Prior knowledge:
Blueprint: H1 2-16, H2 20-27, H3 32-41, E1 52-56, E2 64-65, E3 78-81, H4 86-93, E4 105-109, E5 117-118, E6 131-134, E7 145-146, H5 149-154, E8 158-161, E9 163-165, E10 169-179, E11 184-187, E12 193-198, E13 206-207, E14 212-217, H6 219-230, H7 235-240, H8 245-252, E15 260-263, E16 268-273, E17 280-281, E18 288-291, E19 295-303, E20 315-320, E21 328-340, E22 345-353, E23 364-371, E24 378-382, E25 387-388, E26 393-400, E27 403-415, E28 418-423, E29 430-434, H9 436-457
Antiparallel strand pairs: 1-2, 1-3, 4-5, 4-6, 7-27, 8-29, 9-24, 10-19, 10-23, 11-18, 12-14, 12-17, 13-16, 14-15, 16-18, 19-22, 20-21, 20-23, 21-22, 24-28, 25-26, 26-27, 27-28
Amino acid sequence: MNRTRRVLPILAAILAAGIGGYWLGHHGLGTPELMTTTGAARTNVPGPSGPVIYYRDPDGRPFYSLEPKQTPDGRPYRAVLASEDISFDLKAATAMPSPPAGRRILYYRNPMGLPDTSPVPKKDWMGMEYIPVYEGEERDDGKTVKVSLDKVQRSGVRTEAVEARVIVRPVRAVGTVMHDESRLTIVTMRSDGYIEELFVNRTGQHVHAGDPLFRVYSPEIISAQIDLRVAGGAEQRLRNLGVPESHVREVRAGKNPMSLVWPSPATGDVIEKRVINGQRVKAGDELYRIADHSLLWAIADVAEIDLSAIKVGTRATVTVRAYVAQPVEGEVTFIYPELRAETRTARVRIELPNPDGRLKIDMYADVVFQTGANEQPTVAVPANAVIDSGTRQIVLVVKGEGRFEPRVVKLGRRGDGYVEVLDGVNRGEEVVTAATFLIDAESNLKAALQAFTQPEALK
């Protein structure tokens, strides 16, 4: 009874201000009878009118909805009309700034990212103004994070469109320059003989195919020449002895030279010389070894983990210490089938052009394989757009007007500052490439606050 005496003067003052119905209903300070009595005391007071502004919790708790809604126990939220919403009237009275032309405020969201919205302007418990959400802006679906546009500009946020690219990943290895085994030639005779004169008498001398190497006397070759002249039919025997065709034609023409000039069978450099003037040579002896250095090999030792990226045909850049500024482009021609157990590396053969002869045998080489250069373009994002937590990788997809969506991606190959995306983003989407950790921090804060307040929302 005492409480009623104290409240009635207050109610009278509120009713005189014309806001009693709202205040009583929102603060639960009157009974239906009291509300009826006070309402009857006023004359010409119309009932609630106007459009539905929002719906509020029937128990007066600070839960609101822009659409009809029910409590967890099935009771409907109460509709609040324009005429009975004091905040609606106060907003007009306080001359709040008008929204941008052509855009209507849908609702106001919590400034700290909490899952709490209001259909009218309000402040949180710290006095921070709720942020207006305009028509056309996407509602927060729990997947996006909102960053103010001025903060985006101040933080230097940069973005880049997702495109299809050829991912070239450099694989580095070390190697050694070697002879091309297919360009080595050994000079030998198929019969015994005596060297009468040497025309090529120095190691390293360059020869061309057909150039004279030495003059030799061979009794077996002379015997075959005599048989050809006297009885005929010995021509094939001369060829079997490896006699040059020019000498065979000379014998067939009626001549009988007692010695013959042995021509070089290939073009290249004499890398080994094992014959001197007057030497007796036997059939099968190695007299010269000639190497063609116009093409060479580089044998690179590639780590086991990188082998899957290298294939026959992969381009490689080879740099030797003597010509650091003049790298040579080559191509992988063979991957040796065995692995070296001591170093866990495999040998990879690269064919190198050497027209000017600057590459030398046994030179140390730094090799960079351009893996993936022959592959088809694939969806890729800049490597600095990926936030890697160790257990998962995400990129921040731009949704417009300061909204960003953290999206988990599945990554593939890396190279040239880009990384292949197997799943998670599509070509044409835009991702953040700079200041990613700022937005990621905002996203983590929002997730933490939502997790913190979730038990309250479920009550």
